[in-house]
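Predict both folds.
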Amino acid sequence: MKLKISWPTGIVIALVAFMIFILSFVYKVTFLPEYDHHLVSEEYYKDELNYQQEINKENKGVALKENIKIAKDSLGLNIEFPNEFKSSKITGLITFVRLSNNKIDFNIPIQLTSNKILIQKAKLVEGRWDVKIEWNVNNVDYLYKEKIIF
């Protein structure tokens, strides 16, 4: 028995197949966790209002004799603060942001005994990280940002 399909029936079958194809992609992007789409920041608009303050803090850091230095070594990531300040006076927060997976983002409070801090290799997954260091010395706020490949 030979199956005969007329051209109007073929067009309907093609349209239905195309709609199923498109709807399967919509389903994947909407409901499956591996296609999770999220903003870099959940509070995007609030962050945007504070952007000029961040620029001012970054410029204060650039105006120093030496700024923060970040170096990768066999133990992890070394962050060195300027030697012109006493390490006990430096406070703040180091934020590690992974744009590809916000579940592994983490923060480290700055509590120094010397002007260096070591971030252990075990805490950092290989790949690109956005490092944001917000620090304060003598009631002056500074900001340092860098994108690193670990």
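Second protein follows, with its predicted structure tokens after the sequence.
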Amino acid sequence: MFFKGNKQNAKLGINDATQTLMALDIGSTKIRLIAGKVDTDGQVDIEGYKELRSRGVNKGAVTDINLLSATLAELIGNFADEVNIEPYRFIVGVPGQFIRSYSKNGTATCQSGVVTVADRNHAVENARAGVKFDMDYESIHVIPNYYITPTSSDVRNPIGQYAGRIDVNCHIVACMSSHMRNLEHVVGMISPDFHIQEFSYDGIAASDAVLSAGEKEIGVCLIDIGGGTVSVTVYDNNNVVMTFGFDGGGDAITQAVAKQFGIPMDIAEDVKVNYGYADTDLSAPQNLADQYLNVTVTDPYSEQRRDVRIARWELATQIRTCLGDIFQMIGNRINQYVSENRITLNLGAGFVLTGGVSNTIGIDKVLEIELIQRSATYSQLGGQSKVRLGYPRGVRKAVNQESMRLKPDYANVVGLLRCGYNHLIDSYTPRDTPEQAEGKGGLKRFMDWISREL
């Protein structure tokens, strides 16, 4: 469940949970635009999809506002022409290096002796207000993990329970304000009618796309590795335990390949994607040591051409080293959190990989070695291999499905639709004033009570 202020929703005229939602995944490699509807069961009907190669973005950050705005304008224009849908407000993802997360408790007094929506919202707001955000950060997610009443310390839905007081534990995700303002400026440059409806953390979006409720209950770590960013979300007992990220990702691997073999980045990217393995022993063919690639590099000034011979075992070694560094950084962050907070982390469902880099053959085996076999934190996994690729779930209809294919690298953009829907239905709803309530008939007041309390 997500909580978000309702002022922006009211300004944009958002009052229908069945509306078509628009999501933008602005990555370092590709920019994706998707339109779709989400029903009450979380099923997604995709009504339109379009992508372009990213320009004006590097490691998740806006590096050229004009170039990025022009790229988005082209993408939106092509989308409108092909899909016949006019986008004008968007749910936009933000990568892990721009977020900070906090765990905070809040409390509220229940005046009537029964927990109401207003009481619950008051407790959640008090938790959010209790966070001293780092400079240049503001909250984008306030996620209630559990509530505490006199009868239980693990209440999931407190509405209607008898209690004089309610406490809540929230996981709060904040994003760097300057990054959000840059994106708002980029979108506003296209048209004054365009707005960013809300921002959502990529790790939460990807989780909403690929994780089941059962996995979140028994503990799971989602790792989203994109072209220039890494976003991580950890769940245990249906609670969001950690959210964090850093820059790097696939571009760091490409750069390592380019430097090792002295080839341009675009050629290194092609070699990595089409011929790379995550490990020389675990995932590659046995005869990899005897395989070579010959690529031709042309000097852009002299137009002279030279041939470069690449040993595929050496290519796999470079990829393996970079992936090992990424997974060790993640493991160190998790281990530090577990140690500092003196908790036991039980990842019964293991690890789930999304993002473009997750398509690398053998990446699951590398993750198993780096994060499971070498760390006591995950000893409760029982030595079993619990690593899988995360494919978007619950997509009933997909346009352009041949080009989209719903691979793990589409988790973010599909998940952003679910995040938008969750924000929409879980936004703060102000209660009626006594004067407004008196002007309604008994049935209308009863139906309003049902919608508020249930």
